[in-house]
Each structure stands twice: as C-alpha cells, then as structure tokens.
Amino acid sequence: MEKVKLGDVAKQAGVSPTTVSRVLNNRGYISEETKTKVRDAMDTLNYFPNEVARSLFGNKTNLVGLLFPNVTNPFYGEMVSELESILSSQGYKALICNTFNNEKKEEEYLRMLLANQVDGIIVGSRNRPCDIYQSTNLPIVAIDRFVSEKIPIIRSDNYTGACLASEYLHEANCRNIVHVTGSTTQEMEKGDMRLRGYIDTMLKLEREPQIFQVGFDEDDDYQRLKVDEFLNLNPDTDGVFAAGDTLAGIINTCAKRKSLDIEIVGYDGTSTFLNLCGGISTIHQPINEMASIAVETLLGAISGVYCEDNKEYVLPVTFIKRRY
Amino acid sequence: MEKVKLGDVAKQAGVSPTTVSRVLNNRGYISEETKTKVRDAMDTLNYFPNEVARSLFGNKTNLVGLLFPNVTNPFYGEMVSELESILSSQGYKALICNTFNNEKKEEEYLRMLLANQVDGIIVGSRNRPCDIYQSTNLPIVAIDRFVSEKIPIIRSDNYTGACLASEYLHEANCRNIVHVTGSTTQEMEKGDMRLRGYIDTMLKLEREPQIFQVGFDEDDDYQRLKVDEFLNLNPDTDGVFAAGDTLAGIINTCAKRKSLDIEIVGYDGTSTFLNLCGGISTIHQPINEMASIAVETLLGAISGVYCEDNKEYVLPVTFIKRRY
DNA sequence: TTGTATATGTCAACCGATTGACATATACGA
DNA sequence: TCGTATATGTCAATCGGTTGACATATACAA
Question: In this structure, which topology does domain B158-284 adopt according to CATH?
C-alpha cells in the first residue's frame, strides 16, 4: 500500500499529470468531463495531494505557530482552542507550543517555527522578548504582551477591569483589600495595568493598597503554599482581587479551609472557571473576540496588509458577579 | 532580507553545498576546522535549514497530530499540554485539532493530517471511528477510546475509579446516589466503564442505581439547565458521582444555589480542577503517565516497533478526598 | 612504497507537486 | 474560412535540501 501520488491519479484517469494538477488548482481550461474523470480517479485511489510538496513549491505552509505558556491554564486553553478553531475555518493549521514561560524554550520554539516556514505566529508567552523577534519580518501578533513596536497587541482592558474589581470589593464593605498577583517584580514595574488599576482605585478611595506577590504563574503548589502563609500572617484579609482566576481559586480554597470569609474577584472569566467556581466573581475577558481580532490581524499581515507601529486593540471587559 | 539557503552558507564558508549538508547531517568525513567554518557561516547568516524541504526528501515530517474534542476541557487541555511537552522533547511537533466531537470535523482533520504527512496521530476524540482510520496504516494511538483492533488504547481504570467513587458515597451515608454522565446512550451501551462500575457497585451494595444523562460534553449551558431541572425534580439527591470534573463543578454550583447539601465525586482530577474546586472529591487519572505511554507507544510504532492487536494500557486511578 | 583512512568537490537524481512555455486539436461564431 | 475560446498534452525548471556515485588529494601507517 504505497503512497498514491499525482502521477498515479493521472494514469488512472488516463490524462496527463499536468491536467490533474490543473483540476486540483482550478487553472486553465478543463472540461467538466475531465474534471469528473480526475475526481473519480482521486476517489478510487484515495488520493490527496502532498501538502509538504505544495508548501515547498508555493513557499506557503498555511501553518501558524501558537506560542503560549501552557494550555493547562484555562485562559490559554480557551484562547488556543478558539484561535485554532478560527484558523482552521480559514484553512490554516496550528502548531502548538507550550513555553512554560521559559525563555530558552520560547527561543527554541521560535527557531523551530521559523525552520518550519510557518506563515505567522501568535504569541502569548510572557517572556522577555528575544532577538529573533527583531530579526525576522514574519507576521506576528501578540496577546496581552509587548514584543516590539512592529508587533500589534491584542488585550483586554486590564486597567478598567482592575478598577471594576477593586471598586466592587470596596462597595462590598471589605476592610482589608489585597491585590494578589503572579507577576514578577519586573513585569509589575513594566506596566502591569491590573496592578495599576488596583492601586489607582485604592488611592482614589483613599485606601492603602496592599499587594501580595505570589510567585511564578505555573507552579500551583508553590502558590498554594505562599497564599497559605500569607493568610496565616494576615487573617483579617476580607477582600482579594486576584490577577487571575486560577489564583482566585487557590485563594478561595485556602480561605475556606481556614474558615475565613473572603470576598474574591478573579480575572479571566473562562467558561472553565465559571463552571467550576460558581461562587467567585471575576472580570471576564472577551476571549472569542480577542482570538478573532488576533487571527484577522495576523491573516491580514500574512496577505500583506500593512499594520501601523505600536498598534493596540484593547477590548472591554465585564464584571461577573457570582455567589452561590 | 531574502531567505538564506544552504547555497548561501556554502558560499560564505567557501565550501561546496554538499559539505554544508554533510555538516548539517553529520555524514561522511569532515574536519573540525571545516565544521567550525560552516557553523560560523550559518551563524553570521542566521541560517537554519528549511524543514519543509527536508521533510519532502526524507519523507518524514516529525509532525504528530493531536485530535481531541477541545482543549478548553481541562482534562484534554492537560493531556494535550503534556503530550506536546513530551513530543517536543523528542524532537516532534504537535498539530492541534479541536474536533468538538463533531464527526465531520474529525474526518476533515484526519484528511488534513494525512495530507500534511504527519508521522503519527494521537486521538482522544469521542466520535464514531470513521473509515479513514481503517484505510491508513499510519501509526495511531488512542486515549480512552476504541478506534480499531490495530490501534492501541491508553486509558485509566475507569471501572475501578467508578467503584471507588460509588463506594465512597455509600460510606458517606448518602441515601440517594446518582450517577450523572455526559455520555450518549450509544456510548453507554458500548461499554461505558464508569457507568458499569457505578452500577455494579450499587448492585453489590443492594442499592438501586440511578442514572442521569445530561447530554453532550461540550454544551455547558445546556448541561447547567438540565442539572438544574434534575435537582428540582430530585431535591432529595444527596450523593453524585459525576463522570467528569466539569460536570461535578456544574452540579456543585447548582446544588449550592439551591442550598442542597450534596456529596459529589468527580472524575479526572486535573490540576485545574484541584486548584479551582478545593471542595470536591474526585478520581484522579494519571495524565502524565498516560501521555508518556501514548507518546512512547506512538514513537515506537513510528520507528517500526510492532504492537499487538487490541493492546490496552490501563493505568491505575486514585481517589482524592477533598473538603474545605 | 603502497594501501587506507580522512577530507572535500562535482554532478545528477530525487522528494511530489506546480507552472510557464509551447504544441496541437476541436468546436463554434463571424 | 478564419479567428478565437476551449481543451489537453509534453517538457523542463523550480521549491530547498539530501544523497549516492565518483573523482581527487593529503597524510600516515604498514
């Protein structure tokens, strides 16, 4: 059972290879009769063209790389799922890359994607941008991350979201409102708008901002430990704005175990979170819209549409109040 | 800034293209000196070989297709994440495909994967297996799903898991224990071992099994509605074995909103679930081990290792008791 | 001195499909 | 009857890298 190729189809249909190619690509003149003959031959032989060969010749792979920290995180999971669906509907294929926020991995993946001649990249990883991004002119769009002036960013309105969350906690009469973040100090200094929104809101309300840094994104156990420790030291905490839903869930669990009554607001609002944590409020990011715009922008760039420098798409968020 | 190719490197290094290729592939005799010269040239030109061309000639793409319903579901998300990580560490790339349990989509994706000359496929989608699986001799492994006699299955011990869950609920003195499943009737008849384990346990305990079918996997809102309805009609339900964690979360939320006290046991035990639902017990599937075995088996098949018919790897589950 | 391992080059075929150039043939309307 | 649109074939180059065959040259050990 060897691989069927274009020549075999030609023989089967009794036409020339060129004619088969013409049918395949709808070029030149072909009679309906011949088309049918060729299509029948393809069916009986169970033929489909070798995309690798086509890619090589055409210098187009219809492949897009998705660089994200980890699809285990529901936000990235839903984002990647949505991106893939849209890409697929447009005839593109998605190469998935879990960088685990590891700079070296991100660089390796990038190299791999370039070597595989992807037509574009969508990046949501949270590393320090590396040189390769500068040296390539491959179409790239970023999700909630600055990569370079040339690369458009799609993000939700982190600042407003943080304000909404903080205001809600204030109005819920929380006395000690803490912002818990998984960001690194570097990220926080570089313009963490969720942090900024929280601080500004607190100051506007003439309250003291209190920030708790819980360490890296991906190490759940470590985060759990740190949160536990924090709550031991600050048992009077009664309001938390968590920078992400996973964090919100962890805090919730810790609090419940300690029988602390804490009003929590998360960030992301994935369907997974809404299914699993019916009792926690959150700021909902419009993942579907973000994915749509990301793909649209990327495919635009691929087909040569110019995108101005420092372009940013900031999408509105919504506050989702939940309680049992 | 045109694409750098092998010939350019040859010129830069002052050697023949063949020599560059030899360096690249470590073949024949090359002096250390020449190797360095060539490598330097590759560095200065920022060259990397075109994998598409290599794939075409070598008839090997190092590409693996991952066919799963939806990475939005934490189980599939973590599975895909783990599979990708392992594959990546072995020099393979992962093409992600969300079938949404849609038969037509699965078939299209399959065709696409074949056309793209993937070296193998890992399938966890829950459709009726289609013809293509029979007609190809591409290496394939399945996660918790029967595809054909030729295709090995990796799964967790669904039966034992269901027994553990059911026994726990019994010992917790639940009076009305229901099994809630997202399976279709067809799937249930075809050997749903979670269902089977539940029924057998109930019968062994001389109790009446009660099954509630909540409809398709992926439509959360519909499931929420159905669960709500069910709890209205059966407010005396005080124990639930849910066939998946997402379902468990939905049930939990509904119950809390109705102030019903229901002991729930889910199935999957993903880290996402454990983070978000600290209060619900579950049966933990060893996702990492399953992924390891799946990749190992697949890469074995790719390199020609024979796999006996009807091979099944059944991995042990663990009961995770949780409460706030 | 001869044989062999090492080192590099040239050349052409190949992976599978695409495409442009060019030839040829039929049918049909002007 | 001529011109043109339609229809199909042949042939070779191309995409970028790989590989086998073969030539050649140096160095070193037997």
Answer: Rossmann fold (3.40.50)
**Cβ atoms B67, B109 nearer than 8 A:** yes
Rounded Cα distance, B267 and B75, in Å: 10
**DSSP states along B68-136:** ES-TTSHHHHHHHHHHHHHHHHTT-EEEEEE-TT-HHHHHHHHHHHHHTT-SEEEE---SPPPHHHHH-
* CATH, domain range B61-155+287-314: 3.40.50.2300
Q: Nearest residue to nucleotide D14 when comparing alpha carbons to its C1'?
A: A57
CB contact under 8 Å between B257 and A273, yes or no, is no
- Report domain extents, chain A: 6-49, 61-155+287-314, 158-284
Contact B115 A48 (CB under 8 A): yes
Please list the residues that pair with A245 across neighbouring strands: none
**pTM of structure:** 0.96
Residue of chain B with shortest Cα separation from A47: B115
Residue nearest to nucleotide C15 (CA to C1'): B57
Residue B115 contacts strand C, CB under 7 A: no
* B53 in contact with nucleic chain C (CB within 7 A): yes
pLDDT per residue rounded down to tens, chain A (324 residues): 678 999 999 999 999 999 999 999 999 999 999 999 999 999 999 999 999 999 999 999 999 999 999 999 999 999 999 999 999 999 999 999 999 999 999 999 999 999 999 999 999 998 888 888 988 899 999 999 999 999 999 999 999 999 999 999 999 999 999 999 999 888 888 889 999 999 999 999 999 999 999 986 667 888 999 999 999 999 999 999 999 999 999 999 999 999 999 999 999 999 999 999 988 999 999 999 999 999 999 999 999 999 999 999 999 999 999 877
Q: Residue B201 and residue B159: Cα distance in Å, rounded?
A: 10
Q: Which of B276, B281, B287, B321 to mutate to test the interface with A (most CBs of A within 10 A)?
A: B276
Task: Estimate in Å the CA B74 to C1' D15 gap, whole number.
Answer: 41
B6-49: CATH topology: 434 Repressor (Amino-terminal Domain) (1.10.260)
Listed by number, the residues of chain A in 79-138 with a beta carbon closer than 8 Å to a beta carbon of chain B are 80-81, 84-85, 88, 93-98, 100, 109, 111-112, 114-117, 135, 137
